[in-house]
């Protein structure tokens, strides 16, 4: 994975993409109006939010780079971020239809709310690749990680960290947003490992995945359960883990209980080095982004995608969606060097700032 992939062929969308705007109804445009000429295709890329660092830092530039490679620099990526607003994202789909993109890559803010917009794109002859989250509606392909496995990895790691404490204390579960279908899969996977082995004292679905909401929920859990009764925290991602750890510190919890995470964000990796966060889930974004770009370019050219997507998944509305699922890795202090550093996600210098230098030295990160 390249940490700083350059967007060779990317073109920024007009400011109207960032806000709700008007667009022609899909039916007003001939179905062949987006037909590409050779490699001169337009790929619409819609990402869901900028609360999580991964989308702007990794997904967007990686997809742009791969589209450029696959099209000899002739492909164009039109990009917009919905900033966690489903209505805005639906409007962005319509704007992409008006812009006559040849294919859409959509990471849905709300998997159900996007279904109508996906249908409009399909009616306009534009294939849709669901990216990272399994959007509803007539999607043509899907690429993500095995999201139930992500939850299993988190649950297993938390149990390992708890050891015998799992039998005597309680944990708090901080799940993701109910509008994100992945959050339900993370939760399902985690519960498959934790249920019957540890008591869940409090469990929350965290609105919009926001760290500040996780912080508020954690403060409420500490008040309800008592800070001495909480032996561990399941956090579905790193951003929320940061808010959780802040709440634990504010309550005077010392030592901190093991806290899980996901996404291998830089701040999360640094907390792992410092011993504040127990683990994260490292999801190699490069293969996911490259798979999305390959699927999109192939669909835009009306090529067979069976050699790219060799498995299928069922969404609530579409059965047998051609899919590419990428495996994940449990990231702890012990394997930082062999994962995010080796893959050039972060350099040792980026992780081991002055604040973390002593902890890095102790962990053998030099």
Query: What's the total number of strands?
Result: 13
**How many whole angstroms does the radius of gyration measure?**
21 Å
- Return the CATH architecture of the largest domain: 3-Layer(aba) Sandwich
Number of helices: 12
Q: What CATH first level of the largest domain would be assigned?
A: Alpha Beta
Distance between the termini: 21 Å
Major sheet characteristics:
8 strands, mixed
What letter string, H or E per element, gives the SSE order?
EEHEHEHEEHEHEHEHHEHEEEHHH
Strand content: 15-25%
Q: Structural class given helices, strands, pairing?
A: alpha/beta
Please name the CATH topology of the largest domain.
Rossmann fold
What would your notes on this structure say?
The chain is 38% helix and 17% strand. Helix 3 (115-123) links the parallel strand 4 (103-106) and strand 5. The model is unreliable at 1-35 (pLDDT under 50). The protein is α/β, with parallel strands linked by helices. It folds into two domains: 10-145 and 284-326, Response regulator (Rossmann fold, 3-Layer(aba) Sandwich), CATH 3.40.50; 147-283 and 330-363, 3-Layer(aba) Sandwich (Rossmann fold), CATH 3.40.50.2300.
């Amino acid at each position: 994975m390249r940490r700083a992939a350059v967007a060779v062929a990317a073109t920024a969308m007009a400011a109207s993409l960032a806000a709700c705007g008007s667009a022609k109804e899909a039916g007003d445009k001939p179905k062949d109006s987006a037909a590409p000429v050779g490699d001169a295709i337009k790929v619409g890329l819609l990402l869901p939010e900028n609360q999580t660092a991964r989308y702007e830092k990794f997904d967007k530039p990686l997809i742009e780079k791969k589209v450029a490679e696959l099209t000899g620099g002739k492909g164009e990526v039109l990009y917009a971020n919905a900033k966690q607003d489903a209505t805005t994202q639906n409007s962005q789909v319509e704007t992409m239809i008006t812009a006559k993109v040849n294919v859409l890559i959509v990471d849905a803010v709300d998997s159900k709310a996007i279904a109508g917009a996906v249908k409009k794109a399909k009616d306009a002859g534009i294939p849709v690749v669901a990216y990272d989250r399994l959007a509803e509606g007539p999607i043509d392909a899907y690429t993500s990680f095995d999201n139930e496995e992500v939850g299993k990895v988190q649950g297993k790691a938390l149990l390992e960290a708890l050891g015998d404490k799992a039998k005597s204390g309680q944990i708090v579960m901080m799940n993701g947003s109910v509008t994100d279908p992945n959050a339900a899969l993370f939760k399902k996977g985690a519960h498959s490992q934790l249920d019957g082995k540890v008591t869940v004292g409090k469990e929350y679905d965290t609105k919009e995945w926001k760290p500040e909401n996780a912080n508020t929920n954690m403060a409420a859990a500490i008040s309800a359960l008592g800070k001495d009764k909480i032996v561990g925290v399941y956090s579905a991602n790193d951003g929320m883990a940061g808010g959780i750890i802040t709440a634990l510190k504010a309550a005077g919890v010392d030592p901190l209980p093991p806290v899980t995470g996901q996404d291998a964000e830089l701040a999360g990796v640094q907390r792992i080095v410092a011993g504040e966060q127990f683990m994260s889930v490292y999801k190699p974004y490069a293969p996911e982004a490259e798979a999305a770009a390959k699927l999109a370019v192939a669909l835009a050219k009306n090529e067979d995608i069976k050699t790219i997507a060799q498995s299928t998944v069922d969404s609530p509305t579409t059965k047998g969606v051609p899919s590419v699922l990428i495996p994940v890795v449990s990231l702890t202090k012990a394997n930082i060097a062999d994962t995010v550093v080796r893959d050039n996600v972060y350099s040792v210098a980026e992780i081991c700032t002055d604040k973390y230098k002593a902890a890095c030295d102790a962990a053998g990160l030099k």
